[in-house]
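// run 5 | inverse folding | seed 20
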């Protein structure tokens, strides 16, 4: 069996270090089994406060379940009111961003998940036509996609007071 290039192992290790679990569904109940969904995301701070990047299909599934009596949405171990925190949600790109408070981000960091703080955004060396790898661990599995940058678009930031500050 062929061995993968060494950079793949380094990429997987880096992704594992930064990917935070996203768990949502019914709270545990002593008289019935829990019904939860598992997903992943990355917490990023570009200088305007922390936010979570996850997949749009994760947010859409959570929206389908939010009317359940015992519903909760956890990032790491922090429960957040996810519908109030959605900044952007693109089904076409399958990307969603949600604001986090600094306290929530701090709790996530205490669990060992570092907050990604790139030195500049967008990175100066990303241009249309460049290769991009998107990787994550949906439901604690492993997934990656190799694609090409078609265009660059800024990530929308929240403009509401009290969130992310």
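// decoded
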């Amino acid at each position: 069996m062929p061995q993968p290039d060494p950079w793949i192992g380094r990429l997987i290790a880096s992704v594992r270090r930064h990917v935070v679990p996203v768990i949502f569904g019914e709270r545990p109940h002593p008289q019935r089994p829990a019904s939860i969904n598992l997903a992943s995301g990355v917490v990023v701070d570009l200088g305007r406060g922390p936010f979570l990047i996850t997949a749009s299909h994760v947010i859409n599934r959570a929206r389908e379940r939010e009317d359940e009596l015992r519903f909760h949405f956890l990032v790491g171990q922090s429960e957040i009111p996810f519908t109030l925190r959605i900044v952007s949600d693109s089904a076409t790109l399958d990307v969603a961003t949600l604001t986090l408070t600094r306290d929530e981000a701090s709790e996530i960091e205490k669990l060992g998940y570092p907050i990604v703080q790139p030195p500049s955004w967008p990175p100066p060396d990303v241009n249309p036509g460049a290769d991009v790898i998107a990787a994550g661990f949906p439901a604690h599995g492993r997934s990656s996609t190799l694609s090409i940058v078609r265009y660059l678009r800024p990530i929308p930031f929240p403009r509401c007071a009290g969130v992310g500050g």
